[in-house]
Amino acid sequence: MQYQQQRIQAALLTARKCLATRLAGASSMFVAGSIMRSEGNDFSDIDLVVVYPTLERAWRESFVLDGFPIEAFVHDPETLAYFVEKDIEGGAPVIVDMVANGVLVGDASGPTSVIQQHAQRVLIEGPRPLAGTSYATMLYFLSDLADDLRAPRPANEIAAIAAQLYPRLIDLMLLGRGRWTGKGKWGPRLLYRLDPELANMAADAFTLSVQGDASTLLSLTDLELARHGGRYVEGYRVEAPKDARASIQAAP
User: What backbone phi and psi angles, to 5 degrees, belong to 28?
Assistant: First the structure.
């Protein structure tokens, strides 16, 4: 515990130094990540959501300061509000969580505080119900990947398909139960928080599939799809934008 507290204080000191030097001109920042949750290790980075009064455009950058790897998501209030909304649409509240639970450094008044309060409400309310094109696409790709596992295949192909299917299955398990999902390692973590038994079943099924046996993962996927009406292939349609056109010039 003492080690984690020391890491938190060191991370905050580095964040304040960053605000005063490399990111001078920013009004405030949210300091987040595993270190701030007392879950960090020697390789953990510091996540910063940095807020300037105004910017031409938002950006993301990585750098090292005082020995800490740092991921900085740089915004002004309007760009930050935009990406908060994109998180809500996608069902994976990456920026939302950093803003809602991060330690606010710098100016705590004005729009920064309002955005944090909004992010906190969003997390509590949970994701929007599954519907529309994004829902159809989720079901279609999961169905398509499951069909790829039905025929006999080499072990390396099974593992490659399972690596695409597993996170999509977790997304459907979480969002379909009215819970936020997460990117990368956060998907399995959030599923375990919701239902340890289901999370362990999914993890074991994925492990077997990586070893060349897809039967358990396929059965679990079919059961989850059945909760949403079964396999979804017939009727899936997504239209490209009207301006999705280019010309190819003949070689001279």
Answer: -165, 175
CA distance to 42, 91, 129, 214, 227, per residue, from 217 (Å) = 34, 23, 25, 5, 16
- Statement: the pTM of the whole predicted model exceeds 0.70: yes
SS3 7: helix
Among the candidates 125, 146, 164, a domain finishes at: 125
Q: Which of 63, 96, 125 is the last residue of a domain?
A: 125
Phi-psi map region of 207: left, alpha, beta (phi>0 left; psi -120 to 50 alpha)? alpha
Residue 228 main-chain phi, psi, to 5 deg? -120, 25
Separation CA 167–CA 148 (nearest Å): 16
82-113 residue pLDDT tens:
999 999 999 999 999 999 999 999 988 878 88
User: Which of 48, 51, 52 lies closest to 61, judged by CA?
Assistant: 48
Compute and round to an integer the Cα radius of gyration of the chain. Answer: 22
Q: Please give the tally of structural domains in the chain.
A: 2
48: closest CA among 32, 26, 27? 32
C-alpha dist (Å) from residue 112 to 29, 59, 79, 93: 9, 17, 12, 18
